[in-house]
Structure formats: C-alpha cells, structure tokens
Amino acid sequence: xxxxxxxxxxxxxxxxxxxxxxxxxxxxxxxxxxxxxxxxxxxxxxxxxxxxxxxxxxxxxxxxxxxxxxxxxxxxxxxxxxxxxxxxxxxxxxxxxxxxxxxxxxxxxxxxxxxxxxxxxxxxxxxxxxxxxxxxxxxxxxxxxxxxxxxxxxxxxxxxxxxxxxxxxxxxxxxxxxx
Amino acid sequence: xxxxxxxxxxxxxxxxxxxxxxxxxxxxxxxxxxxxxxxxxxxxxxxxxxxxxxxxxxxxxxxxxxxxxxxxxxxxxxxxxxxxxxxxxxxxxxxxxxxxxxxxxxxxxxxxxxxxxxxxxxxxxxxxxxxxxxxxxxxxxxxxxxxxxxxxxxxxxxxxxxxxxxxxxxxxxxxxxxxxxxxxxxxxxxxxxxxxxxxxxxxxxxxxx
Lengths: 179, 209
Hints:
The complex is a heterodimer. Chain A is mostly helical. In chain A, 60% of the residues lie in helices and 0% in strands. Chain A has helices at residues 28-58, 66-92, 113-134, 140-163, 168-171. By secondary structure, chain B is mainly alpha-helical. Chain B has 7 helices and no strands. At the A-B interface, helix 1, helix 2, helix 3, helix 4 and helix 5 of A face helix 2, helix 4, helix 6 and helix 7 of B.
C-alpha cells in the first residue's frame, strides 16, 4: 500500500516512517483530509469537555436529573470513542492531531436540567456540522467515520431535545449538520 | 481545487477551525431551514453515480413524504409526529432538487400513489382519499402504520448511507445528512411504537433513555 496514493484513504503508515512532526509528504487530498478530520477532532474535544461539565452539574440534582445525566454520560462516552478514532485516522495520514485545550467556553451554563440538555444538544449539533462538512473531502474509511459520527450526533441531539420536552417539530432536523 | 472545498466552507466550519468551542451558531439551528449550497446548476458537474444517487434519494424522500401524509390522515392523533417528518422529507426533496435540478426533473414519483406532495401543501389539509371514514385510531392500526413507516425509513436510510459512501464530495454531505436524519427518525418511530404497544398515549411521547 502506498501512503497518500488515494485521496483521504486511511493507510497503514508506520510511525517511524511517517516523518518527524507529522510532516510526511502528502497529496492535496491527503492534506485536506487531515484538516477535515482535525476540525472534527477539535469539535469532539470540546464536546467531551462540555458533556463532562453537564454531567458534573447534573450529578447533585438527584433523581429528577437522572435521565439527563445518562444522556450526558452517553455523549461523553461516544465522543471519547470518536476522539480516539479521529486521532488514529489523522496519524495514519502523517498528521498531527490537535490536542484538547485545558478548558472551553461553553455556550450554555448547565445550571439546570433544561440548560444541561440544551448544552448537550448544542455540542451534538456542532459535532454534526463538522462531520457533515468533512464528508465532502473524505473518502472510503474516513468518510465512513464522518458519516457515522454525523448520525450519532444527530440521534443524541434529538434525544436531548426530546428529553427537554421539545415537540417533534423542533426536536428533529430535516438535514442534521447542514444548517 | 475540489469545488466541494469551496462551496461547503461555512461560517460554522471557520469557527470550528479556530480551536474554540464553536457552539454558538448551533443555537439557531432549528426547524427545517438549510443553507446547503448548490453544487451544480445542472448535471454537468456530476457523474453517473451521483445522478443516480440523487434521483434515488429524491424518489425515496418523495415516497416517504406521501406515506407520512397518508398516515397523518389515517391517524390524526399522531399528526404531531407525522407532519414534521413529512415536512423533513419535503425539505429533502426540495434541497436535492435545488442541488441537482436534472435529477429532480427526471425522477418519477415512486411510491407517491399518483401524486407528488409539495412543500407548499398546508400541514393540516386532509389528503385526498383519507376521508374521516378512513380514520383508524386503534392501537393495532397505529402499530401497523408505525411499523410500515419504520421499515420504509430504515430502507431509505440504508440506501442513503450506501450512496453517501459512493458519490463524489459534492453530494456526500447531503446524503450523509439524509442518512443521519433517517437514523434519528427511525429512533423516533421506535419510541412512539413502544408507547403505542405499551398502551400509553403516543402523542405524548417525549422522554428517552
């Protein structure tokens, strides 16, 4: 297998042979794939932070917050798995995966169950948007990763909105990630 | 440069690329509006696989919109579920048609029972053929309708996923989005089915997990 031979395809790159600092030679398509995957990873890092923040805020709220807390936990777990897959995919292209930041500015403070659910929906929508855009430049395994990330985010966002009591018309999306 | 690289760059993507938590613009992402960019004014920029996938997606969404319209007429108690999902499929049809006009003009109304639903049709209008006499709110009928819609949605969703892996980068985002919407809609139908089968009022289905 020749690394970089096909646009965006995941290749079995050897760490020792991939070049120092993730600067291995790459085709334009390869570089675009790394950028798209890194954008997804950046959103995923933030989602992990936000989901953990929501879960922590919900923890002391008792049984009334149990459902939302479970949604936060599921989101946190899903994004950790996606993060790991994205890091592998970026590394396989000789890219340097962007690290998580120490903290993130979140758009909604999870001061209540409703606010926490809003935050959870927001982070899923952001990740869906990144995955949606990434499918335009990814192919094969990497595109499959983005497609499944998009559907997972769409489902979790919908769950959060439904749990918040939103009606079907506003809890669902015609085109997740595309708005 | 791949045209998709140009057309799909958005404010959202730029914000995400800044390294911060670009979530603020998701706040207003509700409803059925979309800013998907047209990828072509004709079929000139698309290959045969792309055209076939676009035609297939339009046919599936058209059929599903018709199915939800019929279901809403038969089960008014679930109109709050069926009408939004019908609207979503109508958005899919119009978006696909805007991106690939050639596919829209040549797509037969597969499964549309002789009429193509339009996005301008009022949600509350009773479709032709769904007379009050056709209303059936029995749990058995509700469950059968939900099962039928679920099967159709699942099939369409699987097709969208397969096509999204096969098409060019110009169509992949839209088909991937249709797949994601379908997965979410199947889960919603499952939620209502569980409530109908459990003897609960389906129209109040809101909680999950």
